[in-house]
Recover the amino acids of this structure.
């Protein structure tokens, strides 16, 4: 294997977040599943947007947030995903490149507009997501640049991709290319409902294609259909090389073979918006992983990056995570 | 005069803000005038955007921020301004209407895209603005709905409009319609460089058409070409019924006939981004003015609204200002 050019290449839905404050009554009134990611069609998207308050447009997308975070941590990152050749698509490309991420997937020149995720942030700082995939549905196997993947240490895939057949095909092609190049495949379960929709296929993927797994507590319980976190640990141990499992304010647990490392959550003055917490945990974790750091440091990096992202609106870092992590690790 | 439908109708440039962090070296490298609003053409806009970091798109525009603030304060507000029929134009209309502001000016169906302001926020929380007017240049006298103006207690105009002949005509038409209806005309000087460009015309406007003037210290000094704030006070007293003059952390001074009221700035834990401070001061002030409140309360309302806006990114309120003001005035 020649020297890799990138630490991580991520493949995911390219989505512009539209963040707005809302109260719990709004979620009830509009039938939104609190804390979850729900796919919405164009009509539902329009109705929700019409009803919600003023928004802030900030580029997002789960896997893209992770590589934006990795770049802020000093890593070399690339992204594969689909926007349209419209204003929001240009904004999206600008933001990712300005974050230091290589992003060359051509924009769609027809079909639906660049995807948007209407994110309602309730007073408890929880986020509820309603995603109109838009042009992201146009991602197909041809967009997966095998040469790019072969030049990357880790190929990172989001569970959200699994909702569409062409994206599944793209996913499988990417995983195969990574393994052929002797590189690692990382996977995030993304969302509990996503796990419930695709449980059998996810289990197959994890056992046969995934080296590094990211999940939060409710996702891993849903995957193994168990009631307690402790029951999930031995199950996941046999399935992947490394599992990094997040538990919100309880911190995270890293399982690597027989090793089980508990990492505390990073203290934070005030949680403003939890959007991107898992994405940035993965960014921090991978920034250590690609440098061969020990698991406790990888987890700590994840915790620090996640703490930064939940201290403000939006899922992209607002400060140099590299500097932040260096300070915190020294302290 | 029949019972007015609106407290304030504002006329201004409809602009989507693109907010990004930058350091002072970036401003120097790209020749940006720190703290000022500079008009940029399409080429310069593209070059700046290409060089700047990831942005957050938040609807803005000075006068529009003021009416969005007024609506949050419980007032009835309308806006006249020009977007294009593109994605950002739709975002802009959504955000203003979602804030509770009536906005019926038809979008341009040809010509430049919806205007954007590239706002660079430096670590000292100061904002430096580079505005590509885009579709805002299409605002013309026909867009000024005289009937709407006649139904509003106050017509609020921004100095930024004065950079284009058609907008000047629109401005004059609006002022005349307001006076014909027995309503008040409010005017903000907007920016020191804007005052310097149009000093003679601004003086004429203020003496002959304006009832309520808003300005910050550097703007009022530039208008009267005086060296100290104290020298400006007697000058402005003879020119308008009410002048509300802001001095950043030194608070504000309201001049109404012989009355001179000093209002302290509202204490704030941490200034994050000064974008919109003047716009929201005007919103708070006018929310008291249209209810016939005394000048000290009008100024206090302005200070409270300005303090909220500088405590976060973007120039639109993130909480109910009506509730906030009620709490603060009671305390």
């Amino acid at each position: 294997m020649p020297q890799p050019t990138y630490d991580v290449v991520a493949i995911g839905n390219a989505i512009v977040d539209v963040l707005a404050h809302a109260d719990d009554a709004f979620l009830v009134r509009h039938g939104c599943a609190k804390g979850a990611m729900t796919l919405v069609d164009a009509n539902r998207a329009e109705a929700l947007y019409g009803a919600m308050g003023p928004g802030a447009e900030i580029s997002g997308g789960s896997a893209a947030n992770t590589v934006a975070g990795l770049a802020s941590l000093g890593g070399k990152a690339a992204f594969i995903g689909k926007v349209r050749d419209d204003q929001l698509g240009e904004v999206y490309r600008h933001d990712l490149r300005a974050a230091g991420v290589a992003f060359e997937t051509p924009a769609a020149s027809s079909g639906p507009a660049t995807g948007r995720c209407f994110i309602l942030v309730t007073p408890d700082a929880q986020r509820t997501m309603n995603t109109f995939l838009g042009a992201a549905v146009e991602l197909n196997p041809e967009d997966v640049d095998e040469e790019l993947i072969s030049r990357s240490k880790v190929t990172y895939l989001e569970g959200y991709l699994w909702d569409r057949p062409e994206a599944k095909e793209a996913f499988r092609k990417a995983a195969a290319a990574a393994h052929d190049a002797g590189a690692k495949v990382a996977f995030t379960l993304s969302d509990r409902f996503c796990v419930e929709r695709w449980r059998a296929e996810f289990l197959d993927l994890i056992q046969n294609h995934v080296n590094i797994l990211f999940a939060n507590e409710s996702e891993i319980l849903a995957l193994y259909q168990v009631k307690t976190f402790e029951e999930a640990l031995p199950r996941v141990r046999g399935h992947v090389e490394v599992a990094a499992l997040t538990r919100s304010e309880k911190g995270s647990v890293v399982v690597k073979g027989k090793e089980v490392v508990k990492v505390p959550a990073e203290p934070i003055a005030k949680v403003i918006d939890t959007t991107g917490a898992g994405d940035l945990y993965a960014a921090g974790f991978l920034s250590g992983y690609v440098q061969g750091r020990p698991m406790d440091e990888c987890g700590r990096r994840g915790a620090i990056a996640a703490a930064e992202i939940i201290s403000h609106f939006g899922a992209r870092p607002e400060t140099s995570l590299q500097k932040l992590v260096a300070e915190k690790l020294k302290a």
Notes: The longest strand of chain B covers residues 114-121. Chain B has a mean pLDDT of 96. Chain B touches chain A through 28 residues (CB under 8 Å).
